[in-house]
Amino acid sequence: MTPPLLAPARAASVPQAPFLGLTALWIQITGTWCNLECRHCLNASGPRAPWLKPLDAETIRRAIAEAESLGVKEIYFTGGEPFLHGEILALIERALEVAPTTVLTNGTLIDAARADALAAVAARAAYSLEIRVSLDDPDPSCNDAVRGEGAWAKAVEAVRLLHARGLLPIVTATEIASEAGPAAGGLHARFRDFLQAQGVDRPRLKFMPVFAMGRQPASGETPLTDEDLEGFERSTLQCADARVVAAGGVYACPILAGLPGARLSRGSLVDSFRAAPLYHPACVTCHRTGMTCRNS
Fold first, then answer.
1. Vertex 36, ends 35 and 38: CA angle to 5°?
2. Are strands 74-78 and 101-105 parallel, antiparallel or unpaired?
C-alpha cells in the first residue's frame, strides 16, 4: 500500500514554518501497523501491509540518544499501535531516562499484566510517563462504529487498569460526535461524567479535530499561502520545535510522517533542523484550530 496523502507540487512555492529548536521528539515506532482499522485514522493505519514500516529498536535508541544530546524536553511514541512493538517497554524505559514520555495507544492491548509492567517502569523512572488512550465516544455503539466491534470495551478496561495503578491516563477523542452521536458541544461533559462513573475521579481529556486525510474523504481544502499567514505567528505551529523519527527519515510532523513532502532528513535529527513546508491540507487545520498533537 502506498501513502494515501499528498506530496507538494512545488515545494519552493509554499509557506514555511521556522525551526526554533528541538522541544518534542516523536517516534513513529510501529509506522502504520495497527491492530485496528479506524475509519477516521489520519494516517490510514491498519493490520495489513502497513505502508509505513515499523522502526527497529536500534534506530529508536540512536534517535533518543541524539535527542538527549540536543536537550529534548518531551518524547512521544506513536504509530500505528505502539504496543505491537516487541521492545516497547524497554524503549519506554530508555526514553524515560531522558525526558517525560507519552505513549499514544488505542488501549486494546493493555491487560492487567501490561498495566503492571507500565506501572513498574513509571515507578523507577527519572521522568513522568503518560499513557494516552483513544476513545471516541462514551457510548460503545458510537465508538465501535468508528473503531471496530469490541474496541470500546477494551479501551475502557485499559483506562480502569491504568487508573487503578496511579498512571492517570489521558483519554483522547477525535471530534466526530456530529457523525456518530450527540452534538459535539457537550462532548467534554459527557466524557467527564462517563469517566467519573468508571471511578476515574480526576478525568484527563484531550480532543482532536477531524483531519480529512487517511481514510477520510478529501476535504477540498486548498493549501496555505503566505497571504493566509499574514500576521500569524508561525512559530506557534508544532512543526517549529518538534521532529518525528519514522521509517525513511526525519519528518516535520507526526500527522505527516512517512510522506516525502514532510521529510526533512534521511538520517540525523540535526540535519532536519530547517524550515518545514506548510504544503498539506492538514497544515490548514493546525493553522485554523491551533491544534497540537502534544498532551497540552
1. 160
2. parallel
Strand order in the sheet with 101-105: 204-208, 170-174, 129-134, 101-105, 74-78, 24-28, 242-246, 249-251, 263-265
Strand, helix or coil for residue 250: strand
Higher pLDDT, 168 or 11: 168
The reply to whether 4 falls in a domain is no
Question: For residue 106, what is its C-alpha cell?
Answer: 488505542
141/217: higher pLDDT: 141
Percentage of the chain exceeding pLDDT 90: 77
- Amino acid identity for residue 17 in this structure: A
pTM of the model: 0.92
**Joined grid coordinates for residue 291:** 491544534
Q: What domain range includes position 264? A: 11-289
CA separation for the pair 260, 254 (Å, rounded): 13
- Residue 294 within any structural domain of the chain: no
Residue 128 sits in a domain whose CATH number is 3.20.20.70
Q: Is residue 59 part of a domain?
A: yes
Q: What is the pLDDT of residues 177-209, one digit of tens each?
A: 544 444 445 888 999 999 999 999 999 999 988
Inside any domain, residue 33: yes
Residue of 82, 129, 75, 128 lying closest to 105 (CA atoms): 82
pLDDT at 100 over 70: yes
Count of structural domains within the chain: 1
192: left (phi over 0), alpha (psi -120 to 50) or beta: alpha
Strands 249-251 and 204-208: unpaired
